[in-house]
Predict the 3D structure of the following.
Amino acid sequence: MTSDFATPAVTDSVPDSVQTEAPLLWYRDPISCLQSTFASVLARAGMNPLFALGAGWEFLYVPDDVRSEEFYYPCRYEGDLGRSLFPHHDVSSSWWRPADPDDPLREIREAMTEGRLVIAAVDNFFLPFRPAFGDVHAAHLLVVHGLDERRGLVHVSDAMPPAFQGPIPLDDFLKSWGSANPQDQQDAFFSDSEISRRCLSVSVGSAGSGGADPGPEQLAGWLRANLERFDDPGTVAGLGGLAGLDGCLSELTFRARAGEVRALQELYPFGWGMQAQAALHGELLRDRGAAWRSPALAGAGRAVESVAHAWTPLRITAAHGLDDPAAAADDLHRHAGVLRWRHTEAIESVRRALDEL
C-alpha cells in the first residue's frame, strides 16, 4: 500500500524535509511489529534479518512483566530488547522519549539528518492506513524514515498487513505517538498501555555473520548455546528453560481454574513473542538445511516450527476464554501439554542435527 493522503500546503519558518531511503519491508505470518521493525533496521545495517532474528531460541516468562502491547517481549537483559532478541549478534537497543516537550520532533529530525531509522511506538487508532483507524486502540510499532515539517508530513514504514510505506499527516502521527492508548473493549490484549512518545534506539555492531551465511560451524555454536539455555537458563528475572516452561504452563492452568482473567489476558501478548521466535528459528534451520543438503537440520527446522504452531491454539483458547477462565482451563491444559511435547521433540531434533554439522 502506498500513500494517497492529501499533501498539505508548504509552511514557512520550519525545517526543510529530511528523509532517508525507504527501508525494507520484512514480514512473516507468525511475527509481530517487533520483529518486522527490527528487521528493517538490521537490513539497513547490512544484516540478513532471518539469519539474525532466527539465531536465538529459548523460553523465558517474567511474572508481572507482561504489558498489553503488540511488541511485548520478555527481556533476558532488562530494558534491552535488541540484546535479548539477538543473543548471538552485536545488537542492543534502548527506549527514549523526547527531551524537550516543546520540540518533540528534535531527536527524530536529528536521526533523519544522520540517516538513521527510528522505531516509534504508536496507537493504531490514529493511523489512517491501519484497519483499526478511528475504531480500535492498540499499541503498535512502525519505522520513521522521513520528516517534512514544512508540508506537515512524516514518512513511515509498516510491514505488518496491510503493509504501508509513505507519508502521512504529521498531526496524525503526533496523536498516535502521544496517545494514552486507553482501555478498549474491542482489544483486550493491546490497549490500556500508554504510548508516551516512546522510540527505540537500535545499535548494530559489526554485521559479521549477520550479513552472510553463518556456515555450519557458527550455526552449530548458536544451537549448542540455545540448548544449554533450555537445560540451564542461568540467572534470569523469571522462569527460563524447560523447567520454566513447565512452571509457566502449570501456573497458567492453575490461575485459569481459579477464574483469574489476567492470566489469560497476559498469555496472548506473551505467547506472541515466544511463537515468533520459534517460527523464525525453525525457518532458519529449515532454510540452511535445504541450502546445505542436511536432512536432519531441515527436519529440526520443521520440528521447531511445530513449536510455533502449538502456541496458536493456546493463545486463541485464552482469547476466547476471557469471559469464563475456569471453563477454559481444561482446554488450556490440553494445549499446554501439546506445546510442552513439541518442545521435547524439537530439542531432540536439534540435538540430532548437530551431529550432521
